[in-house]
Amino acid sequence: MSSNKQEKKFEFALSKQNYMLMAIGFAVVILGFILMIGGGSDDPNVFNEDIYGFQRTTLAPMVVLLGFIFEIYAIMKKPKQ
């Protein structure tokens, strides 16, 4: 092989900052799903009204949606040169 050929260096598609932002977005999505947990009843014959609380019906889905939107931003963000 000739020494004039430049070997291609392995590069990731995104920068380190993009991956860090994606990890933050993933954590926000997981937090949203954790907020949805609970509200059940130990006895199947007893209905628990907590399942329709603000946290599970409004807050948690908004947190998950914001996490997904942040993920899109993290992927689309151009790294600084």
Overall description:
- By secondary structure, the protein is mostly helical.
- It has one domain (16-76).
- Helix content is 54%, strand content 0%.
- The chain contains two helices and no strands.
- The protein has helices at 16-36, 54-76.
- The protein is elongated.
Outline the fold blueprint.
Elements: H1 16-36, H2 54-76
Helix pairs in contact: 1-2
Protein name: DUF3098 domain-containing protein
Transmembrane segments: 20-39, 59-76
InterPro entries: DUF3098 (IPR021448)
What is the subunit arrangement here? single chain
Class inferred from helices and paired strands: mainly alpha
Largest sheet: none
DSSP helix fraction:
40-55%
Total E-strand runs? 0
Distance between the termini: 32 Å
Mean pLDDT, all residues: 87
Strand content: under 5%
Summed up, the helix count is 2
Low-pLDDT stretches are none
Series of H and E elements? HH
